[in-house]
C-alpha cells in the first residue's frame, strides 16, 4: 500500500498500480480455477453411476469380502470421489493462486519498471538536467510509446528553455545598449568642466534618442507578450476588422519616410474582413510596412495587396532592399533577428516579425516569407475570413518555400 497526501494534508491509503494489477490477475486466476473445480465436481457427480446399468437388488463384493447393495455402493463412491476431488482441487487452487499472484506481482513490477524510470527522471529534472532522457530499449509496447513521448516532451521543453534563455539574453543586450549610451554621454559631459549649453543640448538629444529606443523595445516586448498570451485563437477581443484599413492606416503613418526614400509604392487594397483584435492587426500591418521601408533602399519598391482568397483574408507586403538568403528567412521570425544587420548599432528592435507571427497565431492564421531574387522580402499573411468558422487552434508557420512572388512593375 502506498500513502498519498492530499492538499488538505489528510493521509489516506491507496493501492499502487502494481498491487492493483496483481490483485486483478489473482482474482481472475482464482476465479477461473474455482469454476473449473466446480465443473469437475459436478461432472464427477453426474458421471459416476455404474449401478444404474445393473438389475435391482444386485450386490457387489468389496475387497474385504463384504457384500453391499449396488446402489448404496454407488452413492458412497460418488460421495467419496466428490469429497476427494473437492479437497484436492481446493488445495491445488490455493497453490496455483499463490504461485500465480506471486508471478503476476513480479511480472507487473517488471512491466512497470520503465514507469518508475519515468518518475525518477521527472523528479531529477531541473533547469540543469534537461539533457537527461529515458531512452527505453525494451519491447515496442505501450510503455515504450510512453517513454518515447516523454523523451519528445523533454526535447520540446529543453528547446523552449534554451529559446527563453536566448530571448532574455538578447533582450538584456538590447536594453543595455541604450542605457550604456545614456550613461556614457552623461558621464563624459559632466566630467567636462568647459562644457557649454550647446554640449549639454547635444548630450540631451543623444539621451532622448537612446531613451526612445529603450522605450520602443519595451513597448515591442509588451506587444509580443500580449500576442503570445492570446495564441491559439484565445483572443480577448473579437470584433469585425478589415486588413485593408489596417494597411491604409499604417501606410499613412510612414508616408513621410517612404517619400524621403523616394519609394515606388504600389497598392491593391481590396476588402479583407476578419474577426479579431483591431489593435493587434494594426500592429501586424504596421510592423510589416515599417520593416519593408526600414530595410529598403533609395528609390526602391514597396507593394501592398489585400484580398479574400478561398475563405482566407490575405495580406501581402513586399519590398526591394537587402539580399536575404532563403535559408535565413525562417529565422527572421525569431526575436531579435534582423535581415542583413547585426544587433549592435542596427535599426529597429528585431521584434517586428516576431510580433507578426504571434499576432497571426493569436488569430488562427499563418505567415510565410519569400526572399526576392534581386533582394528584399515578400511576406504573406493569411487569416480566417470573417465569414468562415473560427479556427480553434493554429500555429503560425514559416515554411521554407521557393515562391513565385514578383514585385509589380
From TrEMBL:
Histidine kinase domain: which residues? 170-387
Entries under SUPFAM superfamilies matching the protein: ATPase domain of HSP90 chaperone/DNA topoisomerase II/histidine kinase, HAMP domain-like, Homodimeric domain of signal transducing histidine kinase
User: Where does this protein come from, organism-wise?
Assistant: Pseudosporangium ferrugineum
Is Ion transport among this UniProt entry's keywords? Answer: no
Q: Where are the transmembrane segments?
A: 21-44, 85-108
Tell me the GO molecular function terms: phosphorelay sensor kinase activity
Q: Where is the HAMP domain?
A: 109-162
CDD domains for the chain: HAMP, HATPase, HisKA
User: What name goes with this protein?
Assistant: histidine kinase
Enzyme class (EC, first level): transferase
Reaction catalysis annotation: ATP + protein L-histidine = ADP + protein N-phospho-L-histidine
Where primarily located? membrane
GO cellular component terms listed in the entry, alphabetical order = plasma membrane
Pfam families named in the record: HAMP, HATPase_c, HisKA
Arranged from A to Z, the UniProt key words for this protein are: Kinase, Membrane, Phosphoprotein, Transferase, Transmembrane, Transmembrane helix, Two-component regulatory system
Q: What Enzyme Commission number(s) does the record list for this chain?
A: 2.7.13.3
Question: Where is this chain's protein located in or outside the cell?
Answer: Cell membrane
Q: Which InterPro entries match?
A: HAMP_dom, HATPase_C_sf, HATPase_dom, His_kinase_dom, HisK_dim/P_dom, HisK_dim/P_sf, Sig_transdc_His_kin-like_C, TCS_sensor_his_kinase
